[in-house]
Amino acid sequence: MSVSLYYSARRPAPLTEAEQAEVARIVAIRHESFPYDDEESLYLYDRLDGGEVLAGSTKMPFDPGHLMPVVAHVLDSLTGLRRALPDAEWRVHLDDLDVEWDEEKGYELPGMRDPDLIAELGGL
User: Which of 39, 43, 44, 87 lies 20 to 30 A from 33 at CA?
Assistant: First the structure.
């Protein structure tokens, strides 16, 4: 059974050309810095439901040592995207668990940057 991170942004108005360019820029930078060639990164859907201006998902790795770095990288990517589209209504969730927005920190899960936890998971 796999776990995925899902994300979407909704608003009445579609993305402007400038916003589309900024989203593309953020996505390209984040893809370049993704730490693993063999794991899924930020993935935006081509087809959107009514009102969505952005949506996607990322399947979480089976390798426990890759889990926290992938979670952190994708949530940091979503933080950048949300800051680029602040007037949209965002929803980010790890299967049924909502990931809350913090104005200062952005999207975070407890322990996702804890080096001891990351090392422990890597040793499993």
Answer: 87
DSSP codes, 45-75: -SS--TTEEEEEEEEPPSSHHHHHHHHHHHH
Name the residue with tokens 């926290």: 68
pTM of full prediction above 0.70: yes
DSSP letters for 73-99: HHHHHHHHHHHHSTTSEEEEEETTEEP
Give 41-62 pLDDT, tens digit per residue.
999 999 998 899 999 999 999 9
Do the Cβ atoms of 56 and 1 come closer than 8 Å? no
